[in-house]
Every structure is written in C-alpha cells, then in structure tokens.
Amino acid sequence: MTDYVFAPPPVPAIAVRGSSALFPARRVYCVGRNYAAHAVEMGHDPDREPPFFFMKTPDALLGDGGVFPYPPATSDVHYEVEMVVALSSGGRDIAEQDAQGLVFGYGVGIDFTRRDLQAEAKKLSRPWDVGKAFDHAAPCGPLARASEIGHPTQGAVTLDVNGVRKQTGDLDQLIWTVPEMISLLSRLFELGAGDLIFTGTPSGVGPVARGDRLNGFVEGVGALSVTVG
C-alpha cells in the first residue's frame, strides 16, 4: 500500500445518466472559437483557421445543480455553453475514422471565463490560465453513454439565464467536428480514458451575476443547471 505524506484528494468525477457509477476525470481540454458566429462576436475571422486548445483542471468540474461561487479578482465572468465529449480510451496520432470508438459519452458543460482577466492576458500576450482554469470553472451535467444516444452531429445547443434565452446554436455549426478534434488533440497529447473535451460555444456569450440561474441544453444529449453563488 502506497504511503503518502498526506491523504490524496478525491478523484474528480462526473455522474453518468442511469447509473450509480461515476466517470473519473483525467484531463479537461477545451477548443477555442469552434463556432463561426462566436468567433465573430469575439472579434476574430470566422474562416476555418487551425483549431487551438486550452485546458482546465479536473478539480474545476462542478456537477449538475451545483452552486458556482462567483470567483475573486474579476468583475466580468461570462458563460459559454458547450457539448462535452468524454473518452473511455485514448492514444496518440488517432485517425479521424477511429476517433468515435474512443468516446464513452456526451454531456452539457459551461466554460466559465473571467473575461476581464482573459482580455488582459491577450493584450499582454500571456497565457489564459487565470481567465479559464479557476475554481469551479467547468460545470458538467450527467454523461449520456454513446452506446445509448449515438454520436450527435446536429441538435440545438442553448443556454437560458433566469429563464431568458441567451445562447442558441446547433451542433451542425461546429467548425471542427468531434472526430477531427480528437484526432488533432492526439497529435499534441497522449489522450487517455477519463479525458473530457469541451467542444466550443455558440454566439451570445455574456456576463453572470450572483443569484443567476443558468440552464444549458444540448438536444439529444441532456441538460445542466447551475446557480451563481
């Protein structure tokens, strides 16, 4: 039995729909500007430029119905609803035609962003970590198994704040498809079981305030509810 200098923290995990078993999270990858309309609203060219990726920490995951504590050092926190891909196996240099075979299931996530800190980092050509990889910044709803729902390539992606629709998109608007994202990521990292991929957000991102209730939805996948604390 391994002797640690202190007790290891719990393994970050996500609920699985229809099961008491949890999905243990290994890494959390995010794809930037994967909807053309969102690229435009962020001031970028919507053409199909090579994708870029950033990461959040697994312990930043927050379950469905959770409270997202408004984070420190910011006055401009934004929501970004996304479909999340969960991998049950991985590898390097994965071919696109083999990528779907690695997928355990799909969920609904929110990529919370400290937009003011991200903007400052961009201006200074610094990493985005403080704007993206902070505590509780990656809510994710229960995962639906791919064996039950298939591999969705179309369907509404929406987010409501206090009952008002703020984001509307469709999975068929993704610039880079799920197999393409998995293949491209595997050229940069060795992917593994437990990896999560936040696939990008449609347009309509905006700020949250304490007390707001957010409801994300991906047609054919599921839903996610979070309250801002």
TrEMBL record:
Presence of keyword Metal-binding: yes
For this UniProt record, give its keywords in alphabetical order, as a comma-separated list: Hydrolase, Metal-binding
Q: Which Pfam families match?
A: FAA_hydrolase
Domain named Fumarylacetoacetase-like C-terminal: which ranges? 28-228
Specify the domain of life of the species encoding this protein: Bacteria
Tell me which InterPro entries the record gives. Fumarylacetoacetase-like_C, Fumarylacetoacetase_C_sf
The parts of the chain that form a coiled coil are none
According to the UniProt entry, its GO molecular function terms are: acetylpyruvate hydrolase activity; metal ion binding
Q: Which PANTHER family match?
A: ACYLPYRUVASE, FLUTATHIONE S-TRANSFERASE
**Protein known as:** FAA hydrolase family protein
